[in-house]
Design a protein that fits this description.
By secondary structure, the protein is an all-alpha fold. The protein has 22 helices and two strands.
Length: 460
């Protein structure tokens, strides 16, 4: 990965942050700072699909979940950052293995392999479906052969661009595409905010509640209200992102003098940018899809919306009437870019984990050939598997996000152990407020996981 392997000595963050992060966040990274790397997996196809479809299917009923997880993310990421900065040049899984238990390290690692392969299956599926959608073709109408071919080709493109360095040369184009879709989201949301009912919905959406399952019109299927809550929580509180943060801060060579600055930038990234993004996308789902597609005269009902091409209609209100036909291609290209960058980030995190567990050199360097091989595994394997999972791409992304939550409670216990131990963080142990938020995060993730497992067992 020559474009992401050089660590800068004159900046406060490594170049991997500039190369593997989400395009929108990279555009403002010089203002926001190192917390941008975490937004690579947070403001992407998973974030768009979980929040857009939550608004589309359930109105504002799940807005609270998208907002209340923000302080949880901020304090958890900052805690992981402190452990990475203050514990020395070590990976988190190595710390778990040597300081707690080798069995626990493997128990944390092995499920992450499966879960994040599923996550990247979702990303490559979004890319493939978006690719077909750009040309006005529904992926469901395409036979297995072309789907498999496109999926593999896209995976190879992801791998080659990341390894060869050409990924850097795509920055301008990718930034422009993703900025375009985000500007359209904002424009649609602004139009929706002119309605008093939107503001009433926003206020009502702050009250925690799990919406009832939504029947899909014309079928026997349901959109699960709790499943969507799990997806939002899993996209916001993934164990892999939390546990991987120390690898990036270790590469960045941060010091204890930068702790407050790092917290401030994390708040800006996730309190302002990510919070605004969450509200905007939910509002778009409600005002452009939920309130519009009522299934009248045999038309599409909002409960039936699940594909990239259908969801693309959400940005139509942002375009002039004469250009409304461009809504789906613009949305599709933006979502393809978001999935592309998220896929790179997930593969990068899993490469760190894998090499650390194998007790190999996990740092990015020109001569680390094994890094390239492992990275390629986490890109190509999902590309091969994606077409064989017959389900709309956005639904795959939601399931992948929901699965990501399963290991979160245990990851939070581990983080709380390290952040409260002077042996690892010295005088910078967690304050009562930090411990309170971390405890609330643990309890929330545990509740969602346990209830999700119980619901699944009941259905079986």
């Amino acid at each position: 990965m020559s474009s992401t392997e050089q660590t800068t000595s004159d900046e406060s963050q490594p170049s991997v942050e500039a190369e593997s992060g989400n395009a929108f966040v990279r555009l403002i990274k010089n203002i926001i700072g190192p917390a941008a790397i975490m937004a690579a997996g947070m403001i992407g196809a998973g974030a768009v699909s979980t929040r857009l479809l939550a608004g589309t299917w359930f109105g504002f009923d799940l807005l609270w979940a998208a907002l209340y997880v923000i302080p949880m993310v901020i304090f958890t990421l900052d805690s992981c950052s402190r452990v990475g900065i203050l514990s020395g040049d070590r990976g988190m899984l190595d710390m778990i293995r040597t300081e707690i238990s080798p069995a626990l390290a493997w128990f944390m690692f092995l499920p992450q392999v499966l879960l994040n392969i599923i996550v990247n299956v979702g990303q490559i599926s979004v890319m493939s479906e978006a690719g077909f959608s750009v040309f006005g073709v529904e992926a469901a109408e395409v036979s297995m052969g072309p789907q498999l071919l496109l999926s593999v080709v896209l995976s190879i493109i992801v791998l080659v661009t990341a390894v060869s360095g050409s990924f850097k040369r795509l920055q301008g184009v990718m930034t422009g595409l993703l900025m375009l879709i985000l500007v359209c989201f904002i424009a649609v949301a602004v139009k929706g905010l002119f309605s008093a009912s939107t503001w009433l919905g926003l206020v009502g959406g702050l009250v925690p509640a799990v919406p009832a399952d939504l029947p899909v019109r014309g079928t026997q299927e349901f959109r699960g209200g709790f499943t969507q809550l799990m997806a939002i929580a899993g996209q916001a509180l993934p164990a892999a992102v939390f546990l991987s943060y120390g690898y990036f801060t270790s590469n960045a060579k941060y010091t204890s003098s930068q702790l407050k600055e790092n917290l401030k930038k994390t708040v800006i990234n996730f309190g302002l940018i990510w919070g605004l993004f969450s509200v905007v996308v939910v509002v778009c789902g409600v005002t452009a899809l939920h309130n519009v597609y009522q299934g009248e005269s045999g038309g599409l009902h909002y409960s039936q919306i699940a594909s990239v091409s259908q969801a693309g209609a959400t940005i139509a209100p942002a375009l002039p009437v004469s250009l409304s036909y461009m809504a789906t291609p613009i949305f599709s290209m933006g979502l393809l870019v978001a999935a592309f960058t998220t896929m790179v980030s997930v593969a990068l995190m899993m490469t760190y984990f894998t090499l650390d567990m194998l007790q190999k050199d996990w740092k990015l360097s020109d001569g680390n050939t094994l890094f390239r091989v492992i990275f390629g595994f986490y890109v190509i394997v999902p590309g091969i598997l994606a077409p064989f999972w017959s389900m709309p791409a956005l639904i795959k992304a939601i399931i992948g996000m929901a699965g990501n939550l399963l290991m979160a409670p245990l990851a939070l216990i581990i983080i709380m152990y390290f952040i409260n131990n002077k042996r690892y963080v010295g005088e910078h142990t967690a304050s009562p407020v930090r411990n309170l938020v971390l405890t609330a995060t643990f309890l929330f993730s545990l509740y969602v996981v346990v209830r999700g497992v119980v619901n699944l067992a009941t259905q079986v």
